[in-house]
Amino acid sequence: MTIIVFGSINIDLVATAPRLPIAGETLLGNDFFQAPGGKGANQAVASARLGIPTQMVGRVGADNFGAELLKNLQASGVQTNNIFIDKTVSSGVGVISVDVKGENHIIVIPGANKRVNNDDIERLSHLLPTAKALLLQFEIPMSAVVTAAKAARDAQVRVILDPAPAQNDVPDELYRLVDIITPNEVEAGQLVGFPVDGEESAAKAAAVLLQKGVKNAIVKLGAKGVFCATPEERFFIPAFAVQAVDTVAAGDAFNGGLAAALSQGHSLRDCVIWGAAAGALAATKLGAQPSLPDRVTFNAFLRERGVGEWGSGGDKETRGQGGVGDKGEITTNN
């Protein structure tokens, strides 16, 4: 069974500086580099590098950026034969500023991503019968996101929605099509209409999202951890402590890790742990896709933190200091 990612494919142009500029200010930066990105492509690479068969459906332009983006996806193990090369528009571009604490500002120019339409939905629909999950984001037209979610529901494929970039006009019908929604603090606040800045407010936000119709709500709180609510349970997973360098793709790494674990039949709690570990690792390196861990690095990180590792074929709990206990709670030795 495969994971399908339907979404954006961008090239990221990244500037690093001592701090992020304020409005009207010009700063001297430290460095510049370009790297493949886009929330959809990032999530596809995150899943593929963890050893999960992954299909990417989307668009790039017929330009040098597009060729580079396809090449990188293929090198990461992502299947790209359902990515359309659009000759009428440029590839998507992300302009990113990163400070020494790893915080960032991002401007996305959609390019070919904005042209995603029913032709792309048709390519997606042919893949759904063999899919375990469909990952969606908001860097392509909302109409395409809703239609893709409907197609996945009809095919009985789990829908995982990362509602980013943040929006406050999400169609009501989309919530009812989503199995797992994964906003960060800013996105959760936009969706529910009140600030989300910690575990307590995340719990309230998750409850609202369940009321809107999503089956499971996961609120990503960055260095604070992750709050998860389902109709049956609520739980909080503390973050893995790491030295953050660049948080640009940490949320995408989380979703890729989460989907990878789900594809192997693990419990939602353990899937959240996988996601948290993948996100933590991504924050320790510069760039979006260059920061995403492979399976060897990922498993080594889990072992070092006392969590253990999971093989395929269902849950495998580890016990002892810093491990996953009988009730699935996670502790770390940080």
SSE layout and pairing:
Layout lengths: L1 E5 L3 E7 L14 E7 L1 H11 L4 E8 L2 H12 L7 E4 L5 E7 L5 E6 L8 H10 L3 E6 L5 H13 L3 E4 L10 H4 L4 E2 L3 H8 L6 H14 L3 E5 L5 E4 L4 E4 L12 H14 L4 H15 L12 H10 L30
Parallel strand pairs: 1-4, 1-8, 2-6, 4-5, 8-9, 9-10, 10-11
Antiparallel strand pairs: 2-3, 6-7, 11-12, 12-13
Short description:
The protein is α/β, with parallel strands linked by helices. The chain is built from 10 helices and 13 strands.
The spatial strand order of the largest sheet comes to 5-4-1-8-9-10-11-12-13
How far is the N terminus from the C terminus?
36 Å
Average pLDDT confidence is 90
Oligomer description: single chain
Describe it:
The protein is α/β, with parallel strands linked by helices. The protein has one domain (2-10, 39-91, 113-304): UDP-N-acetylmuramoyl-L-alanine:D-glutamate ligase (3-Layer(aba) Sandwich), CATH 3.40.1190. It is built from 10 helices and 13 strands. The strands form 2 sheets. It has a 9-stranded mixed beta sheet, sandwiched between helices. The chain starts with a strand and ends in a 30-residue tail after the last helix.
What characteristics describe this protein?
single chain, 334 residues, UDP-N-acetylmuramoyl-L-alanine:D-glutamate ligase, 9-stranded mixed sheet, 33% helix, disordered C terminus
